[in-house]
Amino acid sequence: MLARLEVLERDGHVRHSVPVHAWPLRLGRAIDNDVVLDDPHVAPYHAEIDADADGRPGVRALPGLNGLRQGRRRLGPGERLALGGGEAGHFTAGHTRLRLRLPGEPLAPELPLAHARGPWITLGIGALFWLWLVAEHAIETDPGAPPAEWLGAVIAPPLTLVAWSGAWALASKLFQRRLDFWPHLRVAAVGSLAVQVVGWLLPGLGGMLGWDLLSRIGSGASAAVTTAMVAAHAGIVLPLLRRRLVVAAAAGYVTGCAVLMGLQHERQDRWFAELYTTALPPPALRLAPLAEPADFLRDAARLEPRLQAAVREAEAKRKEAGDSEED
To answer: Is 245 within 8 Å of 231 (Cβ atoms)?
Structure first.
C-alpha cells in the first residue's frame, strides 16, 4: 500500500478511508472517480493525487471553480501541492477536509482512556470543593442560623458541578459520539477548587507580605483559572483543535482584561477595583514590617490634592448638567 486517503469530519474524525495502491488517485463528485466526494462545492473531477519522479506524492487541482486549499494557501486549476506527513498531508476540496497518510510517518502517542484512572480522584476533589464552600458558609453565617440557610450551601455546589459537567458531556456526545461525563467532572472540580484557592491565597499573601497588588489581581487570577477550565472543557470536546482553543481562550482573556481595566480607569482613575488588601491575616503571620503612624499620615496627605481635584471635577459636571436642564 502506497498511502491512505482519509475524508475527515469537521471535528477531525475519519468519515471514510481509502487505501492507495497505485497513482494517480482521482477525486470528485463523479462516480467514476477513485474517491467520490458528496460535496456540492466540489467539481465532478476536482483533483488528482500522484507522485513525482522521486516518489513524493502531491495533489493537483483540476479545472473547476473552487480549487484546493491548504491553510491560507489556495491552488487554482493546474497548480500542484506537495503532500507530506502530519499537517503537510491535510488539504481541503470545497468544504471537504482530506488527509493523505504515508507509511512510516510518526504518530501521536497513545492516549489513556479517561475512565482508566477511575472516578475516585475526581470525587475526592469535588468533595474538597464542597467542604471548602460549606466551611466558608459556616464562617460567614451567624451561630444558630436556621437550617434553611444551610440548604443552598450544602446542595447547590454538587448540583452545579453535575449540571455543568453534564452540559459539556452532551457537547462531547454531539462532537465525539461519546458521553465524557467523568473527564468533564474532573475538569470542573479541579477548576472550581482552584478558583476558591486562588481567591483566598492571593489576598492572604498580599496581607502577609504587604503587597497590595496581589489582592488587586485576585479577581483577574480567578478569571484566568475559569478561562483555563473552559478551554480544558472545550479541548475534551474538540481534542484536535485543542491548541487553537487555548490560543483563542488566552486572547479572549487578555482582551477582556484590557477592556475592563480601561473602563475601570476611565470611571475611577485607577486600573484595579481594589485600592488595598481587603483581607488581613492574623498579625502573627504578617511578614512585612508594620507601617509607622507618621508614614501612614504622610501617605494619606498625598491623596488630598487628587481628592480635591476629583471634587472640583464632580462639581463642574453637576453645574454643567444643571445649566443644561435650565436651557
So the answer is: yes
Dig out the grid coordinates for 107 from the structure: 504518530
Report d(CA 127, CA 112) in Å as an integer: 25
Q: How many CB atoms lie within 10 A of CB 72?
A: 5
The C-alpha cell at 205 is 499573601
191-250: pLDDT as tens digits: 999 999 999 999 888 888 888 888 889 899 999 999 999 999 999 998 878 889 999 999
**DSSP letter for each residue of 239-267:** GGGHHHHHHHHHHHHHHHHHHHHHHHHHH
Write b or e for each residue in 129-161: b if 16 or more Cβ atoms lie within 10 A of its Cβ, otherwise e. bbebbeeebeeeeeeeeeeeeeeebeeebeeeb
Sequence-ordered list of residues with C-beta below 8 angstroms from that of 38, at least 6 positions apart, any chain: 29
In this predicted model, what pLDDT tens digit does every residue of 280-321 receive, in sequence order? 778 888 888 877 888 878 888 888 888 888 888 888 888 877
| pTM of the predicted structure, to 2 decimals | 0.70
